[in-house]
Design brief:
- The chain is an alpha/beta fold and 874 residues long.
- It folds into four domains: 223 residues, 2-Layer Sandwich (Dna Ligase, domain 1); 87 residues, D-amino Acid Aminotransferase, Chain A, domain 1, CATH 3.30.470; 133 residues, 3-Layer(bba) Sandwich (Glucose Oxidase, domain 1); 304 residues, Alpha-Beta Barrel (TIM Barrel).
- It contains 36 helices and 31 strands.
- It is elongated, with a radius of gyration of 33 Å.
- Bound molecules: phosphoenolpyruvate and magnesium ion.
- Phosphoenolpyruvate binds next to strand 25 and helix 32.
């Protein structure tokens, strides 16, 4: 029989799929004997059934009643009892944490009679009425769908705690007027409807946005935790807080957190009131503090990781309300992983598993140059590190609008709520005037890697006037500010950025204690662990040198067309315009020296390591000027009665002659080499002469020639014959024996599907997953981002861009075929990848699984690929 409800005493952390993260950890804390208010979890399975059918699954109601009865028996109190009521909280809790995205309803069980019972047992009349109004407010907005602003306005009209009873009257009137029904007095009905509302909150707009961003699957559903209420707002000897076993921003050891006296949990997270540091708790409740420290130590030992904790003190008694392995910044992730490995708590393999390529990439971001920064405009809590600047905006919609137009923005808010999520996604940085490290803004920004400073109290925001002021300095919407999330400072204007110490480490090898040391040691372990080789895509000697410093062991793709940009474009132009063989040969001869110099420098930078040089790939017309521009120039000259420039006329006719409707599927790649006489010979000669030079200089050049956009083995054979002939010529002329492997890119579906035949002619394969994705999907890699793509992502038709993360089902299948059939035909065939996917963490794991020899990516992604290649091998 399916069970939809499980008591906290029954489960454990291994059941996160079924109980959600929060439920599983509540069960785990109960299991290890920490003081958790009793309760039970309605499973994600029940939620999925509810969302699929729109009604509770068969048996859920009976189970709920049974667990409630057991809870009542154990507590010796009944839900909503008029004399001594048991009260419950109902909270969402999905498999993956979605902070603030779904619903919570507190104080269930209060009604017109039990409110008196609570007043009597607590001895606090105001507190009881305040709890009742909180219930009506939360139930009213979440379950009954009433606009929360109505309650907020009513609350603002009666700020005095002594007026809570009247406020309850106001709130009930709002409910009546808005819904035509009375606020439900039956506690069982309150519970039932709350559970249903939490189920439904899985599908709110903001929850969907969050899931898309965080790549959380849509079909998981949320669990619902029903728990005995404990009150942090029961007077001055009560309170609530959030704590971390290590600093989630820097990874430093110690106990960090915020505490708020006489308050409920939501008050801390919303950032609506400013908290005090946890150390203050030691003064307020030394005993509770000592107990908390002990529990935190136990939790960290038990989970073997940084834990974050929510706790409540009810009249001097400490209760643990939540724990989980805590979110952290990239810096903290690396430092904590290395610390735990040093302490022997986890192995170095596990430490690798605790960090990720995207985090590493974030650590390589620049920071502000504090030497020239001067005094900040305002200071706040350094909530999410990094440095960014942008135009000030005051609401989410404006942030999204400006960002869509390409502007960098900084979202400035009093505090953020989950509704601000689209704005936070769009912004470079978030600045709030209220809230601490655990406020919504801080938690969400850290998760997304957004820069964030919060609780900058001097910032006075006037949303209506669209400006903020700090001590008389007025900053209007659209003005630029710079936000330093590592230091918690905000500056007027745009500050210069400097590189990060982690970047410096990769550039120079210079180690220093702290995060650099942690990164360095984890990278050393990664290099010892990974099987995949890592090369770089580099087209200049400078890039090649950098790639080598960053740990690339070779070049997987040198795009020679990039060597024809700038001034050299004219040389290519001359080749295209050549009227006869003599002119073409002259033009080609002019291209030879610069190509040879480039290759020589690249081979020197990568001495002893493989350098894959790809023959010219793009359509030739890319080297010619824009058609419209030329046509206008020629036409205007004619209209003015003069003669147009003859060079322009020749160019125009060449552009028109070479025009293709689908240039990406046209005369490019190997086709170009086979059609334009002398082109392949020129490039191969440049390579051959560079190799001969390096050999004569005592170097160890390891060049590989790669042929792009191959469809058939015949194309490759023809190129091969030409390469062999030219290299033989170069060897004769130079007296130095020059040979080199000739391989091909696999970037067309036909090539993948006929890999066995192509392998017969290829010394190696390199997967061009950019074009392979384009041609497999029939999606233009150059247009897709601008057209319907965002709509597809929005509607969930696609979860990721297949140009960023390799599509395993489709393109991945072709990759497998190419690897398996290529190697079947030519055992030991070396296969790498040089599409953008070579630097994408998820794709790197796939390439490891299919047994590639190496990935090649842009120099800056090389450390990311090294790390992920190791993580894939764990
Ligand atoms: C590819 O297509 O994946 C590739 C690496 O080639 P390019 O991006 O130069 O077309
Ligand atoms: Mg390509």
């Amino acid at each position: 029989m399916v069970r939809y409800v499980q008591d906290f005493t029954e489960g454990g952390r291994e059941q996160a799929d079924l109980l959600g993260g929060k439920g599983a950890n509540l069960a785990e804390m109960t299991r290890i004997g920490l003081p958790v208010p009793p309760g039970f979890t309605v499973t994600t399975e029940a939620c999925r059934a509810y969302l699929a059918t729109g009604s509770e699954p068969e048996g859920l109601e009976r189970e709920l009643a049974g667990h409630l009865a057991a809870l009542e028996r154990a507590a010796g109190r009944r839900l909503g009892d008029p004399d001594d009521p048991l009260l419950l909280s109902v909270r969402s809790g999905a498999r993956y944490s979605m902070p603030g995205m779904m619903e919570t309803i507190l104080d269930i069980g209060l009604n017109d009679s039990s409110v008196h019972g609570l007043a009597r047992t607590s001895g606090h009349e105001d507190f009881a009425w305040d709890s009742y109004r909180r219930l009506i407010q939360m139930f009213g907005t979440t379950v009954m769908g009433i606009d929360g602003a109505l309650f907020a306005e009513a609350l603002a009209r009666r700020p005095d705690p002594g007026q809570r009873r009247l406020l309850v009257e106001d709130f009930r009137r709002i409910v009546r007027e808005r819904t035509g029904e009375e606020f439900p007095q039956d506690p069982a009905e309150q519970l039932r409807r709350s559970v249903r509302a939490v189920f439904s909150s899985w599908n709110t707009e903001r929850a969907r946005v969050y899931r898309r961003r965080e790549h959380i699957p849509e079909d998981l559903g949320t669990a619902v935790n029903v728990q005995t209420m404990v009150f942090g707002n029961a007077g001055p000897d009560s309170g609530t807080g959030v704590a971390f076993t290590r600093d989630p921003a820097t990874g430093l050891q110690g106990i960090y957190g915020d505490y708020l006296a006489d308050a409920q949990g939501e008050d801390v997270v919303s950032g609506a009131r400013n908290t005090v540091p946890l150390a203050e708790l030691e003064r307020l409740h030394p005993q509770c503090y000592a107990q908390l420290c002990e529990y935190m130590e136990r939790l960290e030992r038990h989970y073997r990781d940084l834990c974050d904790i929510e706790f409540t003190i009810e009249r001097g008694r400490l209760w643990m309300l939540q724990t989980r392995v805590g979110k952290r910044t990239a810096e903290a992730a690396f430092r904590i992983a290395a610390q735990l490995a040093d302490e022997g708590t986890i192995s170095w393999d596990e430490a690798l598993d605790r960090v990720g390529g995207e985090q590493l990439a974030r650590l390589m971001f620049p920071r502000f140059d504090t030497a020239v920064a001067g005094e900040p405009l305002a200071r706040g809590v350094p909530a999410s590190p990094g440095a960014a600047f942008g135009a000030v905006v005051f609401d989410s919609a404006e942030a999204a609008r400006r960002a869509a137009a390409g502007e960098k923005v900084v979202l400035v808010r009093g505090e953020t709520t989950p509704d601000d999520l689209p704005g936070m996604v769009a912004a470079q940085a978030v600045l709030t005037s209220r809230g601490g490290k655990t406020s919504h803004a801080a938690v969400v920004a850290r998760g997304m890697g957004r820069v964030c400073v919060c609780g900058a109290e001097a910032v006075e925001i006037d949303v209506a006037a669209r400006r903020f002021t700090v001590d008389g300095t007025v900053v209007a919407e659209g003005e630029t500010v710079s936000v330093d999330g590592s230091a918690g400072a905000v500056y007027l204007g745009e500050l210069p950025l400097v590189g990060s110490p982690v970047m410096r480490y990769f550039e120079t090898g210079e180690r220093q204690p702290g995060v650099v040391d942690a990164v360095a040691r984890l990278m050393e372990h990664a290099d010892a662990t990974r099987r995949l080789g890592v090369r770089a895509n580099a087209d200049t000697p400078e890039d090649a040198e950098r790639a080598r410093r960053f740990g690339a062991r070779g070049i997987g793709l040198c795009r020679t067309e990039h060597m024809f940009l700038g001034e050299r474009r004219r040389l290519v132009e001359a080749m295209i315009l050549a009227g006869d063989d003599t002119e073409r040969e002259k033009a080609l001869a002019a291209l030879l020296p610069p190509q040879r110099e480039d290759f020589t420098a690249m081979l020197e930078a990568m001495d002893g390591l493989p350098v894959t040089i790809r023959l010219l790939d793009p359509p030739l017309h890319e080297f010619l000027p824009d058609h419209t521009e030329l046509a206008v120039r020629v036409a205007s000259a004619e209209a003015a009665g003069g003669d147009p420039d003859p060079h322009d006329v020749r160019l125009l006719s060449a552009v028109e002659r070479m025009h293709e409707h689908n240039p990406m599927l046209g005369l490019r790649g190997v086709r170009l080499g086979l059609v334009v006489p002398g082109l392949i010979a020129l490039q191969v000669r440049a390579v051959g002469e560079a190799v001969a030079r390096r050999l004569r200089a005592g170097g160890d050049p390891r060049v590989e020639i790669m042929v792009p956009l191959v469809d058939t083995s015949d194309e490759l054979r023809l190129v091969r014959d030409e390469v062999d002939a030219v290299l033989a010529e170069v060897s004769r002329e130079t007296g130095v024996e020059v040979t080199c492997p000739v391989g091909t890119m696999i970037e067309l579906p036909r090539a993948a599907l006929t890999a066995d035949r192509i392998a017969a002619e290829a010394d190696f394969f390199s997967l061009g997953t950019n074009d392979l994705t384009q041609t497999t999907w029939g999606l233009s890699r150059d247009d897709v981002e601008a057209s319907f793509f965002s709509d597809y992502l929005e509607r969930g038709i696609l979860q990721d861009s297949p140009f960023e993360t390799l599509d395993r089902q489709g393109v991945g299948r072709l990759v497998r075929i190419a690897v398996e059939e290529g190697r079947a035909a030519r055992p030991g065939l070396k296969v790498g990848v040089c599409g953008e996917h070579g630097g994408d963490p998820e794709s790197v794991h796939f390439f490891h699984q299919v047994g590639l020899d190496y990935v090649s990516c842009s120099p800056f992604r090389v450390p990311v690929a090294r790390l992920e290649a190791a993580r894939a091998a764990l």
